[in-house]
């Protein structure tokens, strides 16, 4: 299969190289939707890796929805690319430009505080009357320009000793919650709506007064763990002129 992975020196883990090779075959049409992959033992032999390595790569792609295991048939290409999975959710937000390209943003935390949970947060996060949340306001930049504001609330008791200053908050917040606190997101419930830009939106998104009224896209999230316990809420307010949000259903 165009060279043995196992014989090619690389700092990238072998299972990741197998993933990349499989994705390459899928994206270039070699393995189209409905194609049945070789058995894992045969795939391992062709790629020059161990059975366990090949199996690990296919398990990840199956979890991402790229592949589907069918009893008595084998592993099948679904035709879905992993742009809209929780794995991507950890790394990107699903904001696209007018060319339908998924944009990569840089994140700056503007403020962080501990405050009493609002009534809405108490209901969404199943908190009692005296509970506090850690509240963050973040800005997402694309090409050094602000495109989205994040308002995030996390129950204080879930993240003891969380950084207390904006500069010390990790840019990859969800990864930090997973790696440092064991808070792994398994599901996300989203609500989308349109709104008129507020004074805060105008300021943080660098909107001009002459642009007012300006429409913004609002995406409200509740993130859950595998036991359906709400871990955090987030409200994202994004520019809507040159950017849009894509949600794929298959």
TrEMBL record:
Q: What organism is the protein native to?
A: Marinomonas ushuaiensis DSM 15871
Q: Gene3D superfamilies from the xrefs?
A: Chorismate lyase-like (3.40.1410.10), Winged helix-like DNA-binding domain superfamily/Winged helix DNA-binding domain (1.10.10.10)
Q: Does the keyword Aminoacyl-tRNA synthetase apply?
A: no
Show the Pfam families listed in the entry. Answer: GntR, UTRA
Which InterPro entries does the record associate with it? Bact_HTH_transcr_reg, Chorismate_lyase_/UTRA_dom_sf, Tscrpt_reg_HTH_GntR, UTRA, WH-like_DNA-bd_sf, WH_DNA-bd_sf
Domain HTH gntR-type stretches: 12-80
GO biological process entries: negative regulation of DNA-templated transcription
Q: Which domain of life is it from?
A: Bacteria
What GO molecular function annotations does the UniProt record carry, in alphabetical order? DNA binding; DNA-binding transcription factor activity
> Which controlled-vocabulary keywords does the entry list?
DNA-binding, Transcription, Transcription regulation
* The name this protein goes by in its record: GntR family transcriptional regulator
């Amino acid at each position: 299969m165009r060279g043995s992975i196992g014989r090619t020196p690389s700092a990238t883990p072998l299972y990741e190289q197998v993933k990349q090779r499989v994705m390459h075959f899928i994206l270039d049409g070699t393995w189209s939707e409905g194609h049945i992959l070789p058995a894992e033992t045969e795939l391992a032999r062709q790629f020059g890796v161990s059975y366990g390595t090949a199996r690990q790569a296919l398990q990840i792609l199956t979890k991402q929805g790229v592949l589907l295991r069918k009893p008595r048939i084998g592993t099948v290409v679904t035709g879905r690319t992993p742009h809209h999975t929780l794995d991507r959710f950890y790394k990107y937000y699903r904001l696209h430009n007018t060319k339908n390209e998924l944009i990569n943003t840089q994140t700056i935390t503007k403020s962080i505080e501990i405050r009493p949970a609002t009534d809405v947060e108490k209901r969404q996060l199943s908190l009692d009357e005296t509970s506090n949340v850690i509240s963050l306001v973040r800005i997402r930049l694309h090409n050094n320009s602000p495109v989205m504001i994040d308002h995030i609330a996390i129950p204080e008791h879930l993240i003891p000793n969380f950084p207390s200053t904006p500069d010390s908050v990790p840019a990859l917040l969800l990864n930090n919650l997973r790696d440092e606190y064991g808070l792994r997101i398994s599901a996300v419930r989203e609500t989308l709506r349109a709104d008129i830009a507020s004074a805060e939106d105008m300021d943080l998104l660098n909107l001009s007064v002459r642009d007012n009224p300006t429409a913004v896209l609002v995406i409200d999230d509740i993130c859950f763990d595998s036991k359906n316990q709400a871990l955090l809420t987030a409200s994202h307010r994004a520019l809507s002129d040159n950017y849009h949000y894509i949600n794929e259903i298959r």
